[in-house]
Automatic annotation (TrEMBL):
Keyword Signal: yes
Keyword tags: Signal
Signal peptide: 1-20
Name of the protein described by the UniProt record: VWFA domain-containing protein
Lineage: Bacteria, Pseudomonadati, Pseudomonadota, Gammaproteobacteria, Aeromonadales
């Protein structure tokens, strides 16, 4: 669907900037149709997509990640897109997109609405998902394409602590976090690199430094684990993968979340 055909359906504010609990990059169709009082309850689902910009993903993995997002998002959902890297040279944590899709009316609710306003609402809702796909998709592609191997650090723990604040402020009941990363933490907190590293030892460091957070009961899915973009066809050995998974499973359990999917590198299940 062409953007020129969708401008009349909904307008977007700029999809870059700092975190904001009330930010919504999708104007409500109910507001546009002057039916704000008839707006149904949202789905109660929040999808938070987190892009690690220290890991350039292959085109195949990028397409796979987008497919997971497109299959998951439904009317009434809230969607956020973050990126992080190394906190160096301006590569700080960013919220690229935050949008709330409208829910759909029940048949009984439709019967109580003026036909002219209902027609205006229906036309808007028909285009809203297409507009979301186009605008969120553009931000997603730009964010993923912005990844580089030049970043000296990978601040996953710090970034998850920052995102946790937004999750705790959210009124949603179901929270899904989709992380695009190799999950190789390499920061001043701790590092998962090195043959002699043990998950238990690194977890003790995290505990001693009080680095666990509260992710609001989120279900966490990861795509990109073990991927080596500078060595096509090569991946971290199974010993590394087992250690990384052990670390993050425990980290999320101690941070009020559950690790539901661990793609090595692709994710073999849908977000749920």
């Amino acid at each position: 669907m062409k953007l020129t055909c969708l401008v009349a359906i909904a307008a977007l504010v700029t999809a870059t900037g700092s975190f904001a609990s009330e930010r919504n990059d999708i104007v409500s169709c109910y507001d546009q149709a002057q039916l704000s009082d008839a707006r149904p309850a949202v789905s109660g689902r929040l999808l938070t997509v987190v892009v690690d910009q220290t890991l350039p993903l292959s085109d195949d993995l990028q397409r796979a990640a987008w497919g997971h997002i497109a299959r998951f998002v439904k009317p009434g959902d809230e969607v956020k897109l973050y990126s992080f890297s190394s906190l160096a040279n301006g590569n700080y944590m960013r919220l690229h997109y935050s949008g709330k899709l409208d829910g759909l009316l029940t048949e009984s609710a439709r019967n109580d609405i003026n036909m002219t306003r209902l027609r205006r609402l229906d036309n808007c809702l028909k285009g809203q998902m297409g507009l979301f796909t186009q605008t969120f998709g553009r931000e997603f592609v730009q964010t993923v394409k912005g990844a580089s191997l030049d970043h000296p650090k990978t601040e996953i723990i710090f970034s998850l602590r920052a995102i946790a604040g937004d999750l705790q402020r959210s009124q949603t009941e179901e929270r899904v976090v989709f992380i695009l990363s190799d999950m190789m933490e390499n920061s001043d907190y701790t590092s998962l690199y090195g043959k002699n590293k043990k998950a238990a030892n690194e977890l003790k460091i995290v505990e001693d430094r009080q680095l666990f957070t509260d992710l609001g009961g989120a279900r966490v899915y990861v795509l990109g684990v073990g991927y080596l973009p500078d060595q096509p066809g090569h991946y971290y050995p199974g010993e590394y993968i087992d250690r990384i998974k052990e670390f993050w499973s425990a980290y999320f359990e101690n941070s009020n979340a559950s690790l539901e999917g661990f793609g090595t590198p692709n994710l073999g299940m849908d977000l749920n």
